[in-house]
Amino acid sequence: MLNQRIEVQPRSQEAVLATNKVIRNTYTLLSVTLLFSALTAGYAMVTNAAPVHWIIMFGVILGGPFLIHYLRNSAMGLVATFAFTGVMGYILGPILSMYLALPNGSQIVTLAMGMTGTIFLGLSGYALTSRKDFSFMGGFVMVGSLVAIGAILLNIFLQIPALSLAISAAVVLLVSAGILYKTSAMVHGGENNYITMTVALYCDIYVLLLHLLNLLQFFMGGDD
Predict the structure, then answer these.
(1) 209: which of 41, 100, 106, 116 fits an S-S bond (Cβ 3.0–4.6 Å)?
(2) Which of helix, strand or coil describes residue 189?
(3) What integer pLDDT is reported at residue 6 of this predicted model?
(4) Is-contact 88 37, C-beta < 8 A?
């Protein structure tokens, strides 16, 4: 019995160390990829890059993570991660330029970025420090995301402003739940690959920013 208890303790310590390593590597890589995206977005804005067609944008944001997941255990996974986040930053550049051209555009963009950072850091920090298990949100996030994607695609053709606002509000809630769920997965050992976790959180931040921009444009009178 004594030997059995002694054998369990090292495994527990190793699990904790492995979890801490995943968390540390995830936030380090996430910080670097966000900086890289900011640079490519800035380049796109300075060069007046044309907006990317929504089909290409959807293809990148949906297909990129699948490719990275396939390559996650190799050095090419890191290469694919930087390629993905760099392209996503370049796509974001013209979108930010569009908002900046609106009345109150600079305030809208600044506030959206500040809110995005606050929401992410607040929710992620809460999940890390409280160590609560948010795994029960997994089904809600998955189903809600599929519904939201369908609604977004539908509204591309319908162009209903009220539906666009409802979608953005729902997506902000879904992404917030997703941040709690994914951070909790790291804390409790449900995710042990920092590359896939980085990309998942990066996509949450990206989508959150886009939909906060849409909401703030409406509420701050950013329309022409």
Answers:
(1) 116
(2) coil
(3) 36
(4) yes
